[in-house]
Write a structure and sequence with these properties.
Blueprint: H1 8-18, H2 24-51, H3 56-76, H4 79-87, H5 94-108, H6 114-121, H7 127-150
Helix pairs in contact: 2-3, 3-5, 5-6
Length: 151
């Protein structure tokens, strides 16, 4: 029987036979450890800055900047992808994962030029997150403003 003549059920069974079973528990453990390690590194950086006398807000901002830089640098060097192969979803820790999602397409499409390659494709993955994040914050702000007017 060819693929074109298969029913949906038969195709589903074929895919199930050919697909490897995922090892859920080991994958979750690896993601937990790698994600936790990234968070611990961020906490260590924050603790370092606060121990040096920086105000908490400045220390937090500096920590975010360093984590973004490290995520982008490790992506550019090809190390972040190797960590992601081990840690899976654990590397999606918001700030480093976001840096990775900006740098990866930029590197992939750099051969197409700065404007049509890097510039156009840089936010292909992270763009929707930015758009919906900003849109949601605006809606939240408007609702908050209206509720304050009602009081």
């Amino acid at each position: 029987m060819s693929f074109f003549n298969m029913t949906n059920e038969a195709y589903g069974e074929y895919v199930k036979k050919k697909s490897p079973n995922s090892k859920v528990l080991p994958n979750m453990l690896k993601a937990f450890v790698i994600g936790g390690l990234i968070c611990c590194i961020g906490q260590a950086i924050l603790d370092f800055f606060t121990s040096m006398g920086l105000e908490e807000e400045i220390a937090s901002t500096s920590t975010s900047i360093i984590l973004i830089f490290l995520g982008a640098l490790l992506t550019g060097l090809g190390i972040y992808d190797k960590i992601a192969k081990v840690g899976g979803a654990g590397t999606l820790v918001p700030i480093t994962g976001f840096a990775n999602s900006v740098v990866s397409p930029a590197l992939e499409f750099k051969t197409e030029g700065f404007v049509t390659g890097t510039g156009a494709k840089m936010f292909i993955i992270s763009g929707p997150v930015i758009v919906y994040g900003i849109s949601t914050s605006i809606i939240y702000g408007v609702i908050l403003w209206i509720l304050q007017l009602i009081k």
